[in-house]
Design brief:
alpha/beta, 7-stranded mixed sheet, 7 strands, globular
Length: 206
């Protein structure tokens, strides 16, 4: 077993159930196509990381999908809200013997392998590492031990999550990665021609 673990959370890619804020602007079909593209990008990035890998499913574990079971540990998210689900995923990892765990979002077209590698390296000399998202959340969180407080009393999905998390870690050494843009609204992807092309393709097939 590798000592490092990288985790990503995914929603099962179903029409009308993913990227709902984005879908209000571009429709459910295009929103699903874009989410699938983001998942493919995330998987291609994680493939390049020299660590163990786990994918946590939102609804149920899927076999024979994008995530190869020979490469990825397949797990079910558990908990009433995102904070509990992430806390449980970290606890499972640490209980399994991993010494560094990083979780990344699955909706970042700007995510690169070097962001995750930098996070693991930063944990050599820091207690935690965070990749801030431009919308006020975070796209990456890494730790060497569980800090339960950072998963509690947060307004998940709002612009205060990163700031509130930093307050919980005020006594720890925290390394910050560069801010990145996750894709939740049309404005988030307005300069990304690859993702915008999926909307145009959708329009031509209606």
């Amino acid at each position: 077993m590798h000592k490092n673990l990288v985790i990503t959370f995914t929603r099962n890619p179903e029409l009308g159930k993913v990227k709902t804020r984005l879908a209000k602007t571009i429709g459910n079909i295009s929103a699903l196509a874009i989410y699938k593209k983001l998942l493919e990008h995330t998987e291609s990035v994680l493939q390049q990381i020299d660590s163990d890998k786990a994918v946590y499913y939102s609804v149920k574990i899927r076999e024979n999908d994008l995530w190869n079971a020979d490469i990825y540990q397949k797990q079910q998210q558990s908990g009433d809200h995102l904070g509990v689900r992430m806390s449980n995923a970290f606890k499972t990892g640490f209980d399994s013997g991993y010494t560094k765990i990083v979780i990344v979002g699955s909706d970042l077209y700007d995510l690169k392998p070097e962001h995750i590698n930098q996070a693991f390296d930063a944990l050599d000399n820091n207690d935690a590492v965070i990749g801030p998202a431009i919308d006020g959340g975070y796209y990456l969180l890494g730790m060497k031990q569980l800090h339960p407080a950072i998963f509690e009393n947060k307004s998940w999905g709002t612009e205060t999550v990163f700031e509130d998390t930093m307050k919980d870690l005020v006594k720890e050494n925290v390394f910050l990665l560069e801010p990145l843009n996750d894709v939740d609204t049309y404005e988030d992807m307005s300069n990304n021609q690859t993702l915008k092309a999926l909307i145009e393709h959708d329009k031509t097939n209606k």
